[in-house]
Amino acid sequence: MKIRNGFVSNSSSSSFIIRLKDIGKVCPTCKHKTPNILDIIEQSHYNSDDNSVDAVGYKDVLDYIRNWGYDENPSATSNRLTEKLLPYKDDNIAIVSISYHDEALNNMINSGVVEIIGSV
After folding, report:
1. Which of 75, 71, 68 lies closest to 17, judged by CA?
2. In whole numbers, what is the pLDDT of the chain averaged over residues?
3. Cβ atoms within 10 A of the Cβ of 104, count?
4. Among the ranges given (11-15, 35-39, 103-107, 113-117), the one the predictor scored with the smallest mean pLDDT
5. Cα(first)–Cα(last) distance of the chain, in Å?
6. Beta strands in the chain (DSSP E)
């Protein structure tokens, strides 16, 4: 697996490993509820082929990446990933793909609603 830090020219979407923060938490002052970005991504009508939730949960995220098949040395990748994701083992993490052209979702991903752990 190759971790990348920018856009790929022949791709129309970007995949992120994210940690979901305070989903559904209600502010006691203004009663604003933190949005569930996974629901928003799944319901996005921008271009459903480019926006997707690919894996949810620590084990599923690791399995998804291990089975992706982009690395010549999957054992080493697996070890690096396990080490990188271990601090998030008890958190709600996911792999999501977002269309470059969906400005609303890109803004939400970068707004702090989620923590971006990495790009895949």
Report:
1. 68
2. 77
3. 11
4. 11-15
5. 8
6. 13-20, 52-56, 93-99, 114-119
Tokens of 59: 């084990």
> Is the alpha carbon torsion for 88, 89, 91, 92 positive or negative?
positive
- pTM comes to 0.75
- What Cα–Cα distance (Å) separates residue 68 from each residue in 26, 46, 75? 37, 25, 13
pLDDT tens-place string over residues 25-48: 788 888 888 778 888 888 886 655
Across 75-80, average pLDDT: 70
Helices (H) and strands (E) in the chain, counts: 4, 4
Nearest alpha-carbon partner for 93 in 21, 12, 5, 2? 21
Burial class (CB in 10 A: 0-12, 13-18, 19+), 39: exposed
Give pLDDT, residue 55. 93
Structure tokens at 9: 């020219």
